[in-house]
Amino acid sequence: MATAKLMDFDKALELFEPVLGFEVHVELNTNTKMFSDAPNPANETFHAAEPNTLIAPVDLGLPGSLPVVNETAIRSSISLGLALGCSIAESSRFARKNYFYPDLGKNYQISQYDEPIAYDGSVEVELEDGTLITIPIERAHMEEDAGKLTHMGGATGRIQGAEYSLVDYNRAGVPLVEIVTNIIYGTAHRAPEVAKAYVQAIRDIVRGLGISEARLERGNLRCDANVSLRPRGTDKLGTRTETKNVNSMRSVERAVRYEIQRQAQILADGGTITQETRHWHEDTGTTSPGRPKSDADDYRYFPEPDLLPVEPAAELIEELRAALPEQPVARRRRLMTEWGFTDLEFQDVRNGGLLEVVEATIAAGAAPATARKWWTGEISRLANAQEKEATELISPENVAALQQLVDAGTLTDKLARQVLEGVIAGEGTPQEVVDARGLAVVSDDGALIAAIDEALAAQPDVMAKIKDGKVQAAGAVIGAVMKAMKGQADAARVRELILERAAQ
To answer: Helix, strand, coil proportions of the chain in percent (round to 5)?
Structure first.
C-alpha cells in the first residue's frame, strides 16, 4: 500500500475548513440479544465463549423464526436519548436495512431509518483546557450488531489474500444504539481534539447510565468518523470519507488529523476526494480505502413487517428522565472541586478513563490524593506493561485497603508496591499478602536497636559526627538498617532511636 502524501496540518487549516460528523455505536449490556433470547453475557464471558454458541434461530436467520424486541434495550435506548438531550418519539419503527451482510444470516440488518427512537439533541463536551463545545445530535436509533468474520490463510488476517473465512454469529443480534451527529462546523485546528472529546463524552454518558461497558478496545463502543474539507470562504460542503470502527480515543484523534492532512494534499494537487469508507491502521497511523460509501437510498430501507412500532408511555419516559445521572461535565467539575485537584491532576484521572475507579476508591476510604496517586502511577504502569486496563488488575476496594495499611504505618510506600504486586498476582487481599509474605513494617524497638548497633559498629565515626551536631550523618545508619531489614524497618522510628542514643 503506497503511502499517501500529507500536507502540513497547520497549512491544511489555512487553506481548508474541516467539517466533521460522527456515528458512534454503543453495545448495550442487556442479558439477552436485541431480538432473541440468546444470551448477551458480561464482556469477559462473551469474548471467551466458543464461536457460534451464543445464538438462537433468529440470530441465524432460520426460516420461520421471528424477532421479539428486548424491553430492557428499549429502556436503555430511551435513557441514552434523554441523556443526549433528545426528544423521544411517541412512535418509532424498525426497518430492514438491505445490504450484503456475510455475518448476518438473514442478509439484512434490523435497524431504524426515518422513525428513530430519539432525535434532535445535543451534548456538551469539554476539551482538555476546559473549553466547552456543543455537539448537535441528529438521532439515536436502535439496531442489532453483526457477527464476526475471521479470515484464514492469509499473511495479514485481512480478507485480501485469505483462503477462506469463518463466521462467528455470537455477536449477531447484540443490541446497539447508533448515535448520529448533525454536521459539526467551526472546530478548525481543534478538530482532532473535538473528535476525541466527543467520543469520550459518549463513553462517560453510557457508563454513567450503566447501560454499556463502553470499552473501545473490545468493540463495546465504536466510532465512525466522517471528515470533509471545504476551501476557506466557501459554503459548499466537500466530499466526505468515513473512517470505520476506530478503537481507541487516541486513534480517533489521530485518524481525524490524518484525514485532514491527506484530503488537503489531494485537493491542493487538483485531485478529488472519493466518497468512501476507510480503514484505520493503528500500526502505521494511516487510513486505507474500504468501499464506496453508500447513501440511504442504496440500502433500500422498508418497515420491518415482523415488528410493531415502539410506543413508550409518557410515564415511562418521565420515570427514566428522573433517573438520569448527573451530566459528565457537571459531575467532573464538582468532583474536581470536592477532591481539591488542580486542572492538571484532574486531567490525569479523566483522560486516563479512571474517574469512576478513583471515585470508588475514595468512597472505600482512601484520600483523593492517594487514590489518584495509585491509579495514575504504579497501577497504570503495571497495566501498561501487561497491556491491560488498570481496572482489570485490582479493585478500588483493595486499593483503599492497601492505602489504609500505609496510613496505619503497617507498610511503607516501597512495601506497599510489593503488596500491590501480590494482590495483582492473585495472592489475596492486601492484608493477606502482608501476612503471607511477612511484609509488615518492623516497629519493635528491640529489633531496631539491635540493627542500629550493628550498623554503628560498622561505621564507628558516625555517632561522633551526630554528637557534634551533624544530624544528617544519621542517614547512613538509617540506610544500613533499612537494607539489613529488607526495607521493613520503620525509618522514622530508627531515626528517633539513633538520636536518642546520641543524646545519652
So the answer is: 45, 20, 35
The CA-atom distances, in angstroms, between 469 and each of 455, 474, 503 are 19, 11, 11
∠ CA 196-200-204, rounded to 5°: 175
Q: 93 with 303: CB under 8 angstroms?
A: yes
Q: What angle do CA 300, 306, 312 make, to 5 degrees?
A: 100
Cα distance between residue 292 and residue 276, in whole Å: 4
Q: How confident is the model at residue 218 (pLDDT cuts 50, 70, 90)?
A: confident
Q: Cα–Cα distance between 341 and 313 in angstroms, integer?
A: 43
**What pLDDT digit, counting tens, does each position of 58-111 carry?**
999 999 999 999 999 999 999 999 999 999 999 999 999 987 778 888 889 999
pTM of structure: 0.80
Amino acid in the structure at residue 432? E
Q: Which conformational region is residue 120 in: left (phi greater than 0), alpha (psi within -120 to 50 degrees), or beta?
A: left
Nearest C-alpha neighbor of 136 from the set 206, 187, 212, 76: 187
How far are the Cα atoms of 375, 376, 417, 440 from residue 412, in angstroms, in the given order?
18, 19, 9, 8
User: CA 13 to CA 17: how far, in whole Å?
Assistant: 6
Could you give the CA distance from residue 61 to residue 57 in angstroms, rounded to a whole number?
Answer: 6
Q: Distance (Å, rounded) from C-alpha 26 to C-alpha 201?
A: 13
- In tens, the pLDDT along 240-286 reads 999 987 888 889 999 999 999 999 999 999 999 999 999 898 888 89
Q: Do residues 43 and 51 make contact, with C-beta atoms less than 8 angstroms apart?
A: no
Please state whether beta strands 87-88 and 164-168 pair in parallel, antiparallel, or not at all (unpaired): unpaired
